Amino acid sequence: PYTYACHVRADVFCMCTAYGEKQELVDIVLSIKKKIDEFPFVYKVLPSFGISISAEREPSISYLKDCAVIAMNSIKGKVFASYAFFDDEMRRHQLRERQVENDIVSALQEGELELYIQPKVDMHSGRIVGGEALVRWNHPQKGMISPGEFIPVLEKNGFIINVDAYIWERVFSYLGSLQQKKRHLVPISVNVSRVHAYDTGLCDTLLGLKEKYQVPVGYVPLELTEGAFLEDEEGMYVRMKFLKSKGFVISMDDFGTGYSTMNMLKNQPMDEIKIDRGFITDMDNPKCRIIVRHTIDMLKDLNTKVIVEGVETKEQREFLLKCGCDFAQGFLFYKPVPVEEFDRLLYSQDKSCHFC
């Protein structure tokens, strides 16, 4: 039987061959790896191999290659795993991704994507002082689809930019309606995906929504994770600095989970920091309490607003208040709710305050 080999791109190569037993394919992989390991490179090379098998006599080479790449990526960079076979779980994952990609356009058109808001509260009084805009997918057949299932797919294919813009418009529209009714506005932050590092229309989109709905942009904070800057730090920094000059508030989400958080804090134009929930899940650990207390002190010294995510117990609330932290999100107070329910909560609070 013939064996074909080719260069796909960059450091990716492909080989197609007939075989009798799967072990023959493993032997080929190990033989190639041995040659690479023995070659006197001046730096460490960790080859990864993905293997895809077809039962068909004349398979689609392109499809086999794609499957092998998926298998390869599953172990890329792992020191103790040099090869992986494309298996049923990878196949199911691939099918789920394709289903998301196929359904997301109609989901936007048919209004299946819904705006949810998780309130941010003043821990002293329990009053709602803001919210974070979140997206939920209410599929007509599958019901609610977890964001963890579709957001990574949309980030991979770039369609998250369309979904973000849809949610941003819903937020501006809602705040605009509150303003028209002369109701009290609270800031509702929106997430800016790392994919927006390559979105040259980011600033125009946000400023266009400001003009369309006549909402003061200080009421729409922009939440970014460290990953948004790591994609294109200089480009994202320039955009955030420009938007900040136009009145937008810049917030760093998941503070403390990245590799270079302190550099981000030093270099980027942050107005607000959201401390990740991972810091308060182990309050019985004395080291954890020390880290949280000093982190809050440091951020306050930097004149940065501090919000803690994931507050779920009264003990966590009391500890954070003792540390001088006033604001939080978490199930102790509210879960994410549809925008209509958030509106009722806000209206009830405003009515009660007016009555007092």
Account of the protein in words:
The chain has 356 residues and is α/β, with parallel strands linked by helices. The protein is 46% helix and 19% strand. It is built from twelve helices and 14 strands. The chain has helices at residues 22-38, 61-73, 88-109, 147-157, 160-180, 202-213, 226-231, 233-245, 261-267, 286-301, 314-322, 339-355; strands spanning 3-9, 12-17, 49-51, 83-85, 113-122, 128-139, 143-145, 188-191, 222-224, 250-255, 272-275, 305-308, 327-328, 337-338. Helix 11 links the parallel strand 12 (305-308) and strand 13. The N and C termini lie far apart (86 Å). The relative contact order is 0.08. The mean pLDDT is 88.
| Biggest sheet: strand arrangement | 5-6-8-9-10-11-12-13
Taking the alpha carbons of the first and last residues, their distance comes to 86 Å
Bulk shape:
globular
Helix and strand composition category: alpha/beta
Number of E-type strands: 14
Query: What profile does the largest beta sheet have?
Result: 8 strands, mixed, barrel
Please count the helical segments.
Answer: 12
Mean pLDDT: 88
- Tell me what portion of residues adopts beta-strand conformation: 15-25%
Stretches where pLDDT is under 50 for at least 5 consecutive residues are none
Helix content: 40-55%
